[in-house]
Amino acid sequence: MEKEELLRKLSRLNEIVSEAKEIISEIETFSRDAYYSQYDDISISEIQLGTKALTTRFHTVCRNNGYGEIETLGDLLKRRPSEVARYRDLGKKCIEQVQQFIFREYDVEWK
C-alpha cells in the first residue's frame, strides 16, 4: 500500500472511531435519563438540606436558574452535579449536601 492510501484509510478509521464515541455517549445519556425517569414523580421540595436557608436557596435556584426548571428529582438527576454547581447562588457545600441527601434517602449516587 502506498502512503496516500494508508493516510486515507487512517483518516476514515479516525472518523469511524469518532462516530462510535458519539453513539456511545448518546446511548449512555439515554440510558441514564431512562433510569432517572423513575424519579420524575418526586418533587424537588422533598430535598431537605442542613439548614432551612440552604434548602430554600436550593429550591429557588432549581426553579429559577435560567437553564430550565428543575421541578422533580428526576429533572435534577438528569443533570450532572458539575452543571448544577455553575448555577448562580449554589456552592460546593450545597451540591455535596444534595448528593448526600439523595444517597441517604433514595440510595442513588448523583454524579
In short:
The chain is mainly alpha-helical. 63% of the residues lie in helices and 0% in strands. The chain has five helices and no strands.
What do these coordinates show?
The mean pLDDT is 89. The protein has helices spanning 3-36, 52-63, 73-77, 81-84, 92-106. The protein has 111 residues and is mostly helical.
Considering the chains and any ligands shown, give keywords for the structure:
111 residues, mainly alpha, 63% helix, elongated
Write the layout of secondary structure elements.
Blueprint: H1 3-36, H2 52-63, H3 73-77, H4 81-84, H5 92-106
Strand content: under 5%
Which sheet architecture does the biggest sheet show? Answer: none
Rg, Cα atoms, Å? 20 Å
How many helical stretches?
5
Distance between the termini: 47 Å
Summarize the helix and strand pattern as letters: HHHHH
